[in-house]
């Protein structure tokens, strides 16, 4: 079993699979951190946070920056592949802190309007718009930092396990 694991690691080292794994691991860690932060603040564990958007840190930012960093480490930071990944990451992070954050703010206002308008008609006030969609700039930066750290750590861990 151990040999299969090392064979798998050798097959992903230095190619697109390594970049995908780094991105996926960055995403999972960000979602678990987000879940832990919410559990700590609310003193209650909520598994659905693992699959939600918004919050600290941004898992979208962590994922795309993890991908871009990994591509840079594998192919070089002057490669065309890194340039594409970096542009993709920038667009996703801008969207998370811009468009999706604005949609979150609008959802809060619309939910308040609906609640006030239909407070005497509970049957009309059942569904709420999702309010936690976007991220603050701090959440985006934290996610990006996490993506960088995870990708570098994963690269060095692979190197250490396979070559030492």
Account of the protein in words:
The structure is a single chain. Helix content is 73%, strand content 0%. The protein has six helices and no strands. Helix 2 packs across helix 6, helix 3 packs antiparallel against helix 4 and helix 3 crosses helix 6. By secondary structure, the protein is an all-alpha fold.
Question: How are the elements arranged and paired?
Answer:
Blueprint: H1 2-12, H2 16-42, H3 59-75, H4 80-97, H5 99-117, H6 137-163
Helix pairs in contact: 2-3, 2-6, 3-4, 3-6, 4-5
Major β-sheet annotation: none
Please state roughly what percent of the residues sit in beta strands, choosing from under 5%, 5-15%, 15-25%, 25-35%, 35-45% or over 45%. Answer: under 5%
Distance between the termini: 20 Å
**Class from helix and strand fractions:** mainly alpha
Would you list the SSEs in sequence order as H and E?
Answer: HHHHHH
**Percent in helix:** over 70%
Which term fits the overall shape? elongated
Give the uncertain stretches in residue-range form.
none
Number of strands: 0
Gyration radius from CA atoms, angstroms? 20 Å
The residue-averaged pLDDT reads 84
Number of helices: 6
What would you say about this model in short?
This protein is an all-alpha fold and 164 residues long.
Task: List key phrases describing it.
0% strand, 73% helix, mainly alpha, 164 residues
